[in-house]
Amino acid sequence: MTKITGDHLARSAYVYVRQSSIDQLLHNPESRRRQYALTTRACALGWDNAIVIDDDLGRSGGGTARPGFERLLAAICSGDAGAVFALEASRLARNGRDWHTLLEFCALVGSLIIDEDGVYDPRLVNDRLLLGMKGTFSELELSTLRQRSQEALRLKAARGDLHTTVAIGYRRSADDRLEQDPDLRIREVLSLVFRKFREISSVRQLVLCLRQEGIDLPTAVHGPQGRTVRWGPPRYHAVHRLLTNPVYAGAYVFGRTISRTRVEGGRKVITHGVARRRAPAYRKTARGAYPCGKTRRGCLRNRQSAQPRHRLDHLTRRA
Asked: Is 111 a catalytic residue?
C-alpha cells in the first residue's frame, strides 16, 4: 500500500536544498544539482506543484538560524506541504531540536518526508522510529567530524604549523611555511612603523604622524583572485594590530582569540574572534618559528607600550 494519498498530492511538495558552507557552494556543485533534481522525482510521484526552498545555501544545519528552514516549518504548519523532499536527513537538520520539531509538525498535519531511500510517514510508529534514528546518526556524524577536525587543528597548532591567516609582510611558501615577503616596499614601510613607534611610544600619535607624512600602509585583501595587497591611509586599529602581532618577533602564538556561543531567540549564535580576557591564556608559543627582523624583547616592549594605561597597571601589579 502506498503512503502517498490524494490528500498529499492535493497539497504542494516542498524541496529543501541546503549546503553547509560557501566552500561547498564553490567546489561541490554536483550535490546541489542532485538536490534540485528532487523536483523531477516529486513530479514523477504525482505532485503537480513542487516548491524549492534554497534560502539556506551556505548555512550550517547545526542549530544556527536558517530562514529557509523556518519558511519550511511555516508551510508545514499551515497545511500547504503535502511532502518534504530532501536528499538525506542531514540536509534538513544536523541537531535534534530542529529534526524532532520537523517530525512533530509533519505528524500533526499529515505531511510526508521523502528522501532518496524512501517515503516516510511520521504518524506511523515504524517510520517515526526510523526517522528518529536517521536524525540521531546525522547529528552524531556532525559531532564526530567536528571533534576530529578540532583535534587535528590543535595538534597542528602545537607544532606551529597552523596558519589560518598570513600577516602582512609574510607569504606562504610552497611547503606551507611562512617566509618574508620579497616586496621591498612592504618591508621598508613596516620597518618604518616599528622604528617610529620606538620614538613616539603612542599608537595614536604614530597614526597622526604617518598621515601627516602621507605614508600609506599595506593591507592584505582576500578575494576571488586570492590574496592581494591594498595600500591605504593608516588607521588606528590596523596599526595597533601590527604593533602587537607576535609574528613580527618570530613567535607563533595560538589561542589568543576564542569563539563564544549564546542563544538568541531559541537559536545558536556564534561570535568568532573574541579576545581572551587574560593575556597568559595562549595555548602555544613557539619562539623562532618565523623569520623576522625584530627581537623578542622589542616586540614585548611594543606590546606593553601599545596597551591602554589601565592594562599596563594590571600587568605591573601581576609582575
From this structure: no
- Domain 183-308 fold is Hect, E3 ligase catalytic domain fold (3.90.1750)
Predicted local confidence at residue 284, as pLDDT:
53
Whole-angstrom Cα distance, residue 112 to residue 102? 11
Q: Which of 5, 73, 84 is nearest to 41 (CA)?
A: 84
Q: How far apart are CA 283 and CA 76, in angstroms?
A: 47
Taking only the tens place, the pLDDT of each residue in 36-79 is 999 999 999 999 999 999 998 988 877 678 899 999 999 999 99
The predicted structure's pLDDT at residue 72: 94
Domain ranges of the chain: 6-155, 183-308
In terms of pLDDT, which residue wins out, 294 or 182? Answer: 182
- Comparing 311 with 289, the larger pLDDT belongs to 289
Q: How many residues does the chain have?
A: 319
Q: Which of 263, 269, 268, 271 is nearest to 95 (CA)?
A: 268
Residue 291 has pLDDT above 70, yes or no: no
Closest of 254, 245, 279 to residue 155, by C-alpha: 254
- Cα 284 from Cα 253, distance rounded (Å): 5
Query: Please, what is the average pLDDT of the chain?
Result: 82
Class in CATH terms, 6-155: alpha beta
Nine-digit cell at 200?
Answer: 613616539
Catalytic entry in 12, 20, 90, 138: 20
